């Protein structure tokens, strides 16, 4: 991923750095709120959005890698690109210095925002892979090329307030899964194959979903919360169903 190519685009204006606090301005006992938690693409790290900035943690060994505690606001979404210096940030929390309808691409080595995407409605989710930026709104998903920043795809969905969306992360596959247009449907896009598959996964609304790193298997659960189903994303066939005890679902 080349930062120079990002900054060369007119749609990615340069920006001033976040205002940084003085040493000792923030600590873990000052009422900082946890706003979001998200894995990186290989599940070796996770990013935490807080009411005062963001933090990055390594999983094994478990430790805080770094944090950015800011005077100017917090982030409701913080997404890493593998273990690189690039993050996608969306404002959140009570101090709304950074708007919830704008995605900022943050280069932590340069300590500045190198690009922005703005929308008319709030951003519900962001997913990154080395060649794609995926931005989720409540009723639409935008897929951009990470090299030239051009819009590649627009996908309409049912109401998606949780920002449900998942991506494959193998270089040999390019797969996206998201809610479909009908209740309980999942739409799977195999971009490399130029193939779309719609899976009728549940009778009720989809509440969560995840894919294997190669994008070939999809697991879903519904708002009813009693079934987890696993599907083959190539042909949509159901491979397995796990029933949960009612006590575990409440």
UniProtKB/TrEMBL annotation:
It is a peripheral membrane protein. Residues 1-31 are annotated as: Disordered. It holds the Pfam family PROPPIN. One of its GO terms (cellular component) is phagophore assembly site membrane. The keyword Repeat applies. The keyword Zinc does not apply. Residues 1-19 have a biased composition (Polar residues). Its main location: membrane. SUPFAM superfamilies: WD40 repeat-like. Coiled coil: none annotated. Gene3D superfamilies: YVTN repeat-like/Quinoprotein amine dehydrogenase (2.130.10.10). It is found in: Preautophagosomal structure membrane. Belongs to the WD repeat PROPPIN family. This is Anaphase-promoting complex subunit 4 WD40 domain-containing protein. It comes from Ensete ventricosum.
């Amino acid at each position: 991923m080349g930062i120079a190519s990002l900054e060369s685009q007119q749609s990615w204006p340069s920006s001033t750095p976040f205002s940084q606090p003085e040493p000792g301005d923030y600590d873990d006992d000052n009422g900082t709120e946890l706003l979001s938690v998200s894995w990186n693409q290989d599940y070796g790290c996770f990013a935490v959005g807080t009411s005062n900035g963001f933090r990055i943690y390594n999983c094994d060994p478990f430790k805080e890698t770094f944090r950015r505690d800011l005077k100017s606001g917090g982030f409701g979404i913080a997404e890493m690109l593998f273990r690189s210096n690039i993050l996608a940030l969306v404002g959140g929390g009570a101090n709304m210095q950074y708007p919830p309808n704008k995605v900022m691409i943050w280069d932590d080595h340069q300590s500045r925002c190198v690009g922005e995407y703005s929308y008319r409605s709030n951003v519900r989710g962001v997913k990154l892979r080395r060649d794609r930026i995926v931005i989720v709104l409540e009723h639409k998903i935008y897929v951009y090329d990470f090299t030239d920043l051009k819009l590649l795809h627009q996908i309409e969905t049912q109401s998606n307030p949780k920002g449900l969306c998942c991506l494959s992360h193998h270089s040999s596959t390019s797969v996206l899964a998201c809610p479909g247009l009908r209740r309980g449907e999942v739409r799977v896009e195999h971009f490399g194959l130029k193939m779309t598959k719609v899976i009728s996964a549940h009778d009720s609304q989809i509440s969560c979903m995840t894919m294997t790193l190669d994008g070939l298997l999809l697991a879903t659960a519904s708002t009813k919360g009693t079934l987890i189903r696993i599907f083959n994303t190539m042909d949509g066939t159901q491979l397995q169903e796990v029933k949960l005890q009612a006590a575990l679902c409440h």
